[in-house]
Each structure stands twice: as C-alpha cells, then as structure tokens.
Amino acid sequence: MNPRAIALELLGRWSPTGRLADELLADHPGLARLSSADRGLVTELFYGCLRQKLALEFLIGQFATKPPRAVVRHLLALGLYQLLFMKVPAHAAVNETVALAKAPATLPEAKFVNAVLRRATLVTLEKATTW
Description:
The protein is mainly α and 131 residues long. Helices cover 76% and strands 0% of the residues. The chain is built from seven helices and no strands. Helix 3 (36-51) crosses helix 5 (70-84). The N and C termini lie far apart (40 Å).
C-alpha cells in the first residue's frame, strides 16, 4: 500500500472521529505491511500535517480559488507539507499528490490539486530567489 494513501486515509479519519492521532496510527492495518522507511513516511506525513494544520489551512486558503471539500483539502495539505516542510522536490510532491488524488477525487478536483500545488511551487520559488 502507498504510504501517502495511508496518510490521506488517516487524515480523513482524524477529524470526524475525534480519536487520538496515536490510536489511529497504531490501529491502521496497512502499516504492518510497510517497510520501516514507509512507516516513517506515513508517520511524518500524518503527524506533520496535524502539527502544521493551521499553517496548511492558511496556505490552502491563499492558493485555492475556492474552498475544497474535505478529501481535497487533505490532499492539498499532504502536498503542501511535502513541498514546504519536508523539502521533497517539487516535481515529486506534485506528481505523487496528483496521482493520489485520482482515486478519491474527481478529475476536475485532481486538476485543482495540481493547479494549487503548482501555484504554491511558483510562489515558494519566487521567494527563494529573492532572499
């Protein structure tokens, strides 16, 4: 199973259930089948998106032209977290997130995810070159 897909699933379960993040992570059946590196990626993505929730929501509001539904908001949070906090190369973060979006989101929503992440990439590149 894809670590990013598990992180997306965990984000989707976290807010509506009210369960602790630790419990959700420990109870996920897909984690046992992952390598230790992939389990680490799931943990970093899930906890990182929760730690940076306010910043990510602010950024989504800045880059998105309309408020997305929950699954798209979680996809954007995963992509932005990888871009801005994990320093995953932009092409990898965008491509992996858009590929992940194709299952739970509609085609227009996947294109929306692509557009928002690319817009965020351009803005961060502009800021990096002005420092």
